[in-house]
Specification:
The structure is a single chain. By secondary structure, this protein is an all-beta fold. It has one domain. The chain contains no helices and 9 strands. The strands form 2 sheets. Strands 2-3-1-5-7-9 form a 6-stranded mixed sheet, with no helix packed on it. It has a 3-stranded parallel sheet with strand order 4-6-8, with no helix packed on it.
């Protein structure tokens, strides 16, 4: 990916992502349980800053942008992800240790044959 990111460094009131072409993803805002206060590009990544810790991500947060995001880094405050489909170009995903619920609709995240090279997070091991 060309960007060195420590996934454990993501503050609770931010989501970081890397895109293939460095373009910004325009989130609606209602996908999150906190309000977006800024959305900036810094250090080779996009930083979405919120007015409070993000604990829930709802559909369609990552829908219909499957050819853009290649790295997704969620804060350790996220407990529920209600959408993670369509990320076909995803190479790196960090699952926060706080995650309690992950809903993958339609088996859109393809683990066999996917482009994911790095999958990190709480209770994740190299041997499954």
């Amino acid at each position: 990916m060309g960007v060195d990111i420590d996934p454990e460094a993501v503050p609770e009131d931010e989501i970081w992502y890397v895109t293939m072409n460095k373009n910004k993803i325009d989130f609606i805002g209602s996908e999150f349980d906190a309000n977006i206060v800024s959305h900036t590009y810094t250090g080779g990544k996009w930083v979405v800053k919120f007015d409070a810790p993000v604990t829930t991500i709802n559909s369609p947060s990552f829908d219909n942008i499957n050819d853009v995001i290649i790295g997704l880094y969620l804060p350790n405050s996220v407990k529920v992800i209600n959408s993670i489909n369509g990320l076909f170009e995803l190479e790196e995903l960090h699952v926060p240790k706080s995650l309690e619920v992950l809903n993958v609709r339609g088996a859109q995240v393809k683990w066999n044959g996917s482009k994911i090279k790095r999958f990190t997070g709480y209770n994740i091991s190299e041997d499954g």
